[in-house]
Design goal:
The protein is about 25% helix and about 20% strand. It is globular and about 60 Å long.
Length: about 400
């Protein structure tokens, strides 16, 4: 009997928002040029019948671009309609590694986030809300659009763009940081941020047989004048990262306390966790962006070394302190476990009753629905759940974080 096919990796969906003229399209073009071989699927939404932004997006992206004209995305479609576009981009044959939704300058980012979280496509996962701010026009924009304070409060990453044009850049940066709710705030010119903030800059599968867009771009700009283009390792905004590896299991309660108290500026957490005796059959893939958190149990490969491997990425984070806090999460008694230890983790595991990403693959094709995943839960355990489903109650989404002030 053949083995069930391994589930396809999930594709992060990043919402790119910001008021008119803030530099969203410039930032998207930068990501397309500097994707490190990863293929980006773009959903470009103009307000108006002539799709100027779609024309401006770099390269002929073909089936990796969906352009939505003549209307604001959050008003023109509902979650099910957005799923049609996400389904198209998330098909395995497209080879797309990350999807970026470039919203209209008049879109309501809170609604876009809810639409992504309400997606029924199990191949996609929320990748964060990136709010782009025009530093030179910030005061004027805030006067015209006071709702920008609300947008900044729910952002996971804020890019303060056009700093070279702002006469008081430090004041603007300080003001923006004061309006966020712990989001990473990075300065930029010409939309140049490090793509590693948003996604892994390598394709999920090796591509052979043709030059990538990145190869062509490198050839075009290589040479002694490369530095003039501003792309040769001189990104205006850097990031801090921490790699943590442990051959001892992690205590789930301690890890959840660490995750619940993660500091300002810590934007991404990714990797795998070994909870030892708490679930010896599975390792847990962890995906956190901003305040969004999700765990994905998957069976250990036979003979695999059982390690916890995490990467933390942020701006202005204290990496030595975070390393010490993660060290303190290691279990003092790796061979014992109590029956309630995993409750905090299981809150952030997607509902195993939902269908898998490929229903035709049969039982066991999805690590969350397969026979190896059967955590014991006290039948009397009944967490409080809003009886009326709304996207903001979706697992891993903190409704308090997305609440308008």
């Amino acid at each position: 009997m053949g083995q069930s096919p391994k589930p396809q990796p999930q594709i992060p969906v990043v919402v790119l928002a910001g008021f008119l003229g803030s530099g969203k399209t410039t930032l998207l073009n930068h990501l397309l040029h500097r994707s490190g071989g990863s293929r980006i699927g773009a959903v470009v939404n103009d307000f108006g019948a002539i799709e100027i932004d779609a024309m401006a997006v770099a390269g002929a992206l073909g089936d990796s671009t969906v352009s939505l004209g003549n209307g604001c995305l959050c008003c023109a479609v509902d979650a099910s309609e957005l799923d049609v576009y996400l389904d198209r981009l998330a098909r395995p044959e497209t080879g797309i590694d990350v999807i970026v939704i470039e919203a209209s300058g008049l879109a309501e980012p809170q609604e876009l986030v809810r639409m992504v979280l309400a997606s029924e496509n199990r191949r996609v996962v929320y990748g964060g809300l990136v709010e782009v701010v025009d530093a030179a026009e910030f005061d004027a924009t805030r006067a015209r659009h006071p709702e920008i304070d609300r947008h900044l409060a729910i952002a996971d990453l804020v890019v303060v763009n056009k700093l070279d044009r702002a006469p008081d850049a430090e004041r603007v940066l300080g003001l923006v940081r004061g309006l966020t709710d712990g989001a990473a705030v990075v300065p930029a010119t010409y939309g140049r941020i490090d793509p590693e903030f948003l996604f892994d800059c390598r394709p999920s599968e090796e591509r052979v047989g043709q030059l990538s867009f990145d190869d062509l771009h490198e050839e075009e700009h290589s040479g002694p004048d490369d530095e003039a283009h501003g792309h040769a390792g001189h990104l205006h905004s850097g990031y801090d990262s921490l790699s943590f590896v442990s051959d001892r299991p992690v205590d789930p309660r301690r890890l959840m306390r660490f995750l619940d108290s993660r500091p300002e500026g810590l934007y991404r957490i990714k990797g795998y966790v070994d909870f030892g005796a708490h679930d010896p059959a599975n390792r847990y893939s962890v995906h956190a962006v901003g305040r969004f958190l999700r765990f994905y149990p998957e069976p250990w490969e036979p003979g695999a070394e059982r390690l916890t491997q995490l990467v933390l990425i942020g701006s202005g984070i204290d990496t030595p302190l975070l390393g010490k806090e993660l060290e303190a999460c290691r279990s003092d008694a790796p061979h014992t476990a109590d029956e309630h230890g995993m409750w905090g983790v299981l809150r952030y595991v997607q509902d195993p009753e939902e269908p898998g990403p490929d229903p035709e693959s049969g039982p066991g094709s999805d690590p969350e629905t397969g026979p190896d995943f059967a955590p014991e839960i006290d039948p009397d355990f009944a967490p409080e759940i809003d009886p009326g489903f709304a996207p903001e109650t979706h697992p891993g989404f903190d409704p308090d974080h997305d609440q308008a002030p």
